[in-house]
Amino acid sequence: MTDTRDVFRLLEPWEKNVFYIVALITVIVFIVFTVRRLMRYDIRKLIREKGFWKRFFRAIYDASTNRTLLHGDIFAGVMHFCIFWGMIFLLIGTIILALNIDIIEIVAPSYSFWHGTFYVVYSFILDFFGSIAFIGIIGMMGRRVYLRKTQMSYRTRTLNDHGTERSYILDDWVFVGLLFVVIIGGFILEGLRLRDPKYSEWYSFAGTFTSWLLSAMGISTDMANAVYPHFWWFHGIISFIWIMYVPVSKGWHIFAGILSLSVSDELAGKRLSRPNLESEENFPTGTVKDLTGRSFVMIDACIRCGRCHAACPAQACEHPLSPRDLILNMKPLDPKKKEEKIVGPIIKEEMIWACTTCYACMNRCPLKIEHIPFIVEFRRYLVMVEGNIASDAQNLLKSLERYSNAYSMSNSSRGDWASELNVKVLDEGNETDVLYFAGCAASFDPRNQEVAKSFVRILQKAGIDVAILGPNEGCCGDPARRLGHEFVAQMLMQANVDMLNKLKFRRIVTTCPHCYNTLKNEYPQFGGRYEVYHHTEFLAKLIKEGKIKISASKKETVTYHDSCYLGRYNGVYDAPREILRALGCKIVEMPKNREIAFCCGGGGGKVFMEDKSPIRLSHRRIDEAVNTGASTLATACPFCMTMFEDATKSKDLREKILPHDIVEIIEKGMMEPEDSKPVS
Amino acid sequence: MKILVLIKMVLDTVEEIKIDPSGKKVDTDAARFILNDVDNHAVEEAILLKEKYGGHVTVLAVDAPEIDDALFTAAAKGADRIIKVTTGMEQMSTQTMAKLLHSAIQNMNTQFDLILTGVQASDDIDGEIGPSLAAQFNLPYIGMAVKVLPDPQGRSTEVVTELGGGLYASYRSSLPVIVGISAAEKPPRYVPIMKVRMAMKSKKIETIPAPAPPPGSKIDVLKLYKPVVTGGAAMITGTPEQIADNLVKIFRDRGLS
Amino acid sequence: MDEIFILAEHIKGKITDTTYEILTLGREISAKMNRPLKAVLLGKGVGNLAMDLGYADGVVMMEHDLLANVNIQTWSIALMHIIKEKKPEMVIMGSTNSLMGLGSYIAEKMGLPYMNLCKGLRVEDQQVVGNAILYGGKIEADVRPCAKPILVSVRPGNYPGDPARTRREVPVECVTPPDTLMEAKINFKEFIQAERKDIDITQCDVLVAVGRGIQNKENIVHAETLAKIFKNAAVVGSRPIIDQEWLPLTRLVGRSGMSVRPKLYLALGISGAPEHMEGMKGAQLIVAINKDKKAPIFRIAHYGVAEDLFKVIPKLAERLKK
């Protein structure tokens, strides 16, 4: 007998009809639920957006490789890969089967293919992938039980009563439980069938194994055959239930996830949106009206994996922020109820203000959900519409608006730090190769002024044609924008662009990663397209080219802190390390380095504000640095510098470790003429 | 209750102040102006009183650079009328300004119960607005107020003033009265830009032309100059004993010990 | 006629420090212009205070219930009456909280010149010239009155008060209170002493501030020793000190703390972060002691000592106690 099987074995003909009716009902229900979900997203508009299909296919690729899941959690990534491909093959298998028995056998029976070699290979493949899926599910369930206390616990202060802990836990277990029953059910069904010695399908190895187990449990062929039709129905119904459950449970992530990956913007957070604030309609309202179809795609896509929550440094320091709960709290929102207030009732203000915009959450999210733009949009509402901000934030914003700097000082003194350096000030009458954009901190804060001076001295020694902007420079706009005062931010950015576009320079270099990010990624929004480098990139190149002569004799032990806006935001991890190595420093990495570096707590405008929290991010980070045994904490950002200076002073650690900017370390390495040889 | 608040702009001292060639005036071309901080408190106090007791708040100022923003911000906080007196004059002393305001207020034909203004400003070379107006209107004046507690029924109010060192004095005055505010009962509120925008759309700044050029100040400015500061601290050197001796002398000269 | 008058200020039965300062100034002017110096004393039952004003040549006194405690309205009525009766050359008063508005009111009412915000007076060709401080200290002005009598308001802390603290008997001229006093619409009710768990450092005359240079909590006692020697003084700190909880938040000076304008700000071991300087750069006299001669605090300090503070403070304390 050729290898095949009767799908409706041991069933009455009327049962087959009922089956098809139930199947049809399931499909209809599935489609209805799916369409209702899709309606939340204004999907037609999303699809029509430029580049959607390109991103869609990239999303398919990302999904196929499970790349974003493997990133940072190999176990979960592999287990999910198993479930993912397992289910896909089972789905394909079902489609092939349906194709054969529901269409071909009816219209063109001679073309029926589901038998013989095809059947053998088919059965083997499906058993294989079914087993893979099974392993994946067991792995995931085990992981969930093991990790229950950490990132998968919903027991945080930041989760509102909406979508309570219990309903999430229930959904988690029902979804994976049903799937488990479906897969196991498939094997059991096979096992029951294969108890009948009529069949000898060794290639259905999983089914064969199951039948062996059943026999070992004392189930005879007759018993198996008697149970078979009932179990067949059981398996079928459970499968249909699972299918209908997908669009109304976390299973929806299957579709929303692809969509989320398709609408994700690589520059999200790095380049914030630019609303036209001429018209009051474009001001945020703090309600559902602020959420777009895209927002809902992301909110729905979230499967509560908790990686963002585990990565968040504020959360680790017990601040009232959880990126996961930010999204979860918004899940119950109805896109049609545009008046419903989010800021306050749904997302508490303390959560909105606790964020340093460090990007750890977005970096880890497998579905590329954009937490930071949500936070900034809510901040825009609080600042520009409600006027509900702490007094230190008020003072900072007033200073930026009035004086174009963060220090309430006259901007005309902005270039004073360079007065002894004999460096030219760029204006419309001259030109330069390198324009050094110093930024507010380097211009006004004494500790960071030292860094600026050091940097200019190095460039001058290297014979680089460098100029500064002096009093013509205004704040780059980053603190205003991240704090939510988009109006002031746009004013500052446009003013700088208008000024820069009149000047002649080849490239801009800055010592501040915040200025770097804004100049590079956000100024194009205002008509400013420039070649922008961070000083570590620039100096690394100069060292490689031999233009900066250093001695490799500094046998210092150094640990390097990756600034959020340099590392996660702009991918600059290697240049600073190359510099330190070229200087002969012994680099000891902190456990959280590169992509997972722990934020110093200064971003989002917070470096200028009062920190009343009991556990400070900078204190956590400095402890990590001290534990490496290094005596120098190398930094490349004035905010990090400020935070670590304060932390080492407050914790009385200055005998143990001192923060130094990379340029200061370079300059020290330059000042030994006796053993200075050009380093290749 | 009808409240009138008087505000004025002063030089923003964050920027460098230049003295014009005549040596008798400040060069206002490159100068920036900011709302006198205690006037901001006066506006806040007026709005707080309106919120508590009901009534009407008018904010009046003499035209000056950047005054429009201050007036619209006051409107955004809740002021009902915002008015400025237009003059041809660029700079004027406080006494002169008080005389201009006096005529403007008379022409407004409104009976105010309470007139609030900031107690002092950094350019009050020949007097303060509050008491000058009180003299012209023959009204009582109380300065350094930190609390204003009007009695809605009776025509009087209690005013608490700050004497310093944790000591306060409480006065009772009949209405109308002019009060110089030192601090509002709550820190001046932050007005989000949206509210200022809406105020600009919904309210207009009324203008009153100044009647006639007022008489000049009764004091003459001979010259203005920057205080002589020798680039930072005068460094005291020597042995610790010598240094201590020097410091003691400095303290004694200043009446500190 | 043409005498130099100073207005005596008293609170709760005591002559204020500022009064002694303007007595010193008054004496200077009186000597240069060769005119008698008189102190104007308003109040009720203040006869015993006349002796405290013995540095002057005489006292002009008016007593009435309504003048018992300082009250701008009643005091201005009284003072205007005295000016009309006695026709002095000038009346000097302190630029203090309680007298705020008095000079301005009288000047407007009587059409007199008022030299406000002065840090001092000098005499040139028998004419008095005022030296006023404007714009938070950034601009000084020399001003001259265009009429007489002249009203002058002098900021506290510019003249020494001690020389004037002489108790002696001087002639007292009593002036009858005018009937118009009864028309006053403002009544003094009561004094209120604020309940504070800690002192209000913004009201202190002297602040001894510590920064990181103090090194540890125990060393703050050096600052406390100094603070005890001065009158109305307190120990305050910069951010790192409060962060480490060596001093409570009520003692924080700076952007996130208090803004202070004491007569003396003694900065010990403070480097001068911008946020800190924002809170104290308005102090009338800033003396900074910091080992690092490049410390930014020296840019705004009036006097600086680039020496180990632990060497200087004991010597300073020793000498001040004398």
Q: Hey, roughly how much beta strand do the residues of chain B contain?
A: 25-35%
User: What's the rounded overall pLDDT mean of chain B?
Assistant: 91
User: Helical amount among residues of chain B, as a percent range?
Assistant: 25-40%
Using the coordinates shown, work out and report the CATH topology of chain B.
Rossmann fold
Helix vs. strand class of chain B? alpha/beta
Pattern of helices and strands of chain B: EEEHEHEHEHEEEEHEEEH
Strand percentage of chain C lies at 25-35%
Number of strands of chain B: 13
Could you tell me the radius of gyration of chain B in angstroms?
21 Å
The major β-sheet of chain B equals: 9 strands, mixed
Q: What is the spatial order of strands in the main beta sheet of chain B?
A: 9-8-7-10-6-1-4-5-11
Count of β-strands of chain C: 17
CATH H-level superfamily of chain B: HUPs
Helical stretch tally of chain B: 6
Largest interface: B-C, 79 and 98 residues
Helix content of chain C: 10-25%
List segments of chain C where confidence is low: pLDDT < 50 over at least 5 consecutive residues: none
Overview of the structural elements:
The complex is a heterotrimer of chains A (680), B (257) and C (322). Chain A is mainly α and 680 residues long. Chain A folds into 4 domains: 13-156 and 171-258, Fumarate Reductase Cytochrome B subunit (Up-down Bundle); 273-285 and 292-385, Fumarate Reductase Iron-sulfur Protein, Chain B, domain 2 (Orthogonal Bundle); 400-542, Rossmann fold, CATH 3.40.50.1860; 543-669, Rossmann fold. Helices cover 54% and strands 5% of the residues of chain A. Chain A is built from 28 helices and 9 strands. In chain A, α1 runs parallel beside α9. With 257 residues, chain B is of the alpha/beta class. Chain B has one domain: Rossmann fold (3-Layer(aba) Sandwich), CATH 3.40.50.620. Chain B contains 6 helices and 13 strands. A 9-stranded mixed β-sheet of chain B has the order 9-8-7-10-6-1-4-5-11, sandwiched between helices. The longest helix of chain B is centred in the first third of the chain and has 17 residues, at 37-53. The model of chain B has no long low-confidence stretch (mean pLDDT 91). The longest helix of chain C has 17 residues, at 17-33. Chain C starts with a strand and ends with a helix. Chain C is an alpha/beta fold. Helix content of chain C is 25%, strand content 28%. Chains in contact: A-B, A-C, B-C. At the B-C interface, α4, β7, β8, β9 and β12 of B face α3, β7, β8, β9 and β12 of C. β13 of chain B pairs parallel with β17 (303-305) of chain C.
